[in-house]
Amino acid sequence: MTAHQNGTISTGASEFLLNCFVRSPTWQLWLSLPLGLLFLVAMGANGVLLITIWLEASLHQPLYYLLSLLSLLDIVLCLTVIPKVLAIFWFDLKSISFDACFLQMFIMNFFYAMESCTFMVMAYDRYVAICHPLRYPSIITEQFVAKAAIFILARNAISTLPIPILSSRLHYCGRNVIENCICANMSVSKLSCDDVTINRLYQFAGGWTLLGSDLVLIFISYSLILQTVMGLKAEGAMAKALSTCGSHFILILFFSTVLLVFVLTHMVTKNVSPDVPVLLNVLHHVIPAALNPIVYGVRTQEIKQGIQRLLKKGW
């Protein structure tokens, strides 16, 4: 059964409609240009980073494997969200099937949690490299990276899978218009005729438990790093250590800050335009993805040299 013009559906409906900035149609045109550009930059930069690490034997080290994982997560998050948003902006393709919507919901929650966890493991890698440099080769091994990857997959799959399951089990017998550009959990769940308290509580508790614990561990790691760096007496050692960790910390801070602003705007919706959290949600899928490989590529000498070697070989 298809959707009615007034935005209602009966129980047999099979799709949602993504109501993306319809109150501000000019936003769609002007936002689509930088969004499309950021998408191309994110896909291109992450692709170059992955190819460089894959083809350059000198980069087959634990830290660069973690960078590869981060690039893969960014690519998947971009592909899951941005093409659909651009299709809405350019071709007015607002409809999305129930299955596709709940799949998008799972991928967004799962890969976001994985990205946060990957940042945590990378912070630990930098902590060992700077605070225990002599023990680094014996602690941060390929086996460590493999175990970390399994942990990242398992922890976040188990913790985020209930989110789309809880939403998909609700009865959608009223409106089918999602006031968002993406299938965010609460944007979808609040369309249900059922009580969504459990969905709301799980999203809140799960999000803060996962991201909160990761942020605490990241903060502890960088606090210990800073403490160690301040005690370095070798000439240039402090500057080198801060340079190595500076880019990591800036990206983590940006990732966390945008997410925090998004959460806060949702909590104070009475004083904020409904379009603001929607805009932040969309941008959070593409800006970190575009920044991560550029910052790491520019700030990491080994990666720059690897890209230069590949260019000389004809890439």
How would you portray this structure in words?
This protein is 73% helix and 3% strand. The longest helix is centred in the middle third of the chain and has 34 residues, at 98-131. The chain has 12 helices and 3 strands; from the N terminus they run E-H-H-E-H-H-H-H-E-H-H-H-H-H-H. The chain has 315 residues and is mainly α. Helix 2 runs parallel beside helix 5. It has one domain (17-312): Rhopdopsin 7-helix transmembrane proteins, CATH 1.20.1070.10. Keywords: G-protein coupled receptor, Membrane, Olfaction, Receptor, Sensory transduction, Transducer, Transmembrane, Transmembrane helix. Residues 45-296 form the G-protein coupled receptors family 1 profile domain. One of its GO terms (cellular component) is plasma membrane.
